[in-house]
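Q: How would the structure tokens look for this protein?
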Amino acid sequence: MLIFKANKISGIPATNFALSVIPHMVNMQQGRIKFLFPFYAISLNIKNDKADEWIRQKDYEKVTDEIIDYIQKNGISYFEELKKQVREGAEDLKLKSIKLQKEINPLTEDELIKEYNNFITSYCNYYVIGAIAFLYEHIVSQRLSDSLSRYKNSTEIIESLLNTDYKSFMMESEDMLIDIGKGKSTLEDYQKEFFFIKANYEDAPILDENLVKKEISNFSPIPQNKKSKTKANLTDTEKIMVNLLRITEEIRDQRKKLNLIGSYTIFRFLDEAVKRTGIERNLAKRIFFFEFSDLIKDKKIKNRLQKREYVSYVYDGKKVHYLEYPALVEENQFDKQQKVIKGVSASKGIVKGKVKIIFGTKDFQKLKPGDILVTEMTRPDFISVMKKASAIITDEGSLTCHAAIVARELGIPCIVGTKIATRLLKDNQEIEVDANKGIIKIIR
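A: Here is the predicted structure in token form.
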């Protein structure tokens, strides 16, 4: 039995079907990107669709050193090119998805399996380009934050330095919802452009007319926070980190768009397989992504899936291990009695409030206006609760993550990359969030 020691950094609601493809993408990195993943793992409790993400921090720090050294010697152009490639990849995958959705139904079983495998290849080839940001973004964010802590207003300086004209696909979605209200766009325009917007690793609901109308009825625009123009004298290394993170904002955002398009599309393949086989959909979601043909052709797969309760995927630097048992253990335990949590300040401010732990949409009703949103990571479907929160805290993330970008737009305090917030904090605890210093204090 293989057991791996690593550092748990985050988690996410997910199904085996949609999530199991991610380590395969990591395994495809050779020849696609210059800097390789040293280790990456996910553990998934299938019964409650809850996954945890694992890395080895020290190994990632070494890769980050290599990246900074490379940029010092060769400039930033390689990452500019990756930004272009991942943006083009997202658009191409979107077109492939639209085409496939129209063609899936009449395909024979063999044709369905072939088209699924072809789509998986395209999805992986594009996604792995954007995945490079995962190697360094949280480490570079922490280093930049620590380095600029010599300034009392370091968080404000970082906000100013990272301000770009780039508009994320979520902000584009918001703009179109506003245009629908003004009569400048239609429901059909929105469905065509953002059919994937509700997809995630758990499922991918079809964006029908009723769902769009519900989105419009619950919609309130993100207020445009006044952008800071604070300046600072930067060292050469700090300039590299700032330039890299500014590029990373788009790489990360387009990677997420690819992820939503990919998840949406493979769930449509799953729907077709379920319709043809009669297997219960929730049971079918227990397959590994590479078992799609078995789902269609193997009459015994139902028994196999009923017994599947826990899985681990581990990329050990050479290959991926798909294991049907808990294979990850915490390398460094944290003090569960500690009263202070540290992270990276992503948006300035100090607030006190009550904690609400939010893992997914089922928890959204818990958060009331003024509560502090504590989560593993935010996703596009978190926008509605983020607008209500007085502050945002995440386990995962960097200065360019979804939570950081939206918090800066909203002008509310945000601390990311705590690694342990959802495990240490509890609902209704009163805490102080000092996002000027990246510190969370438990009051009671």
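Residues 236-277 form the longest helix (42 residues).

The chain has a mean pLDDT of 93.

Upvote if useful.
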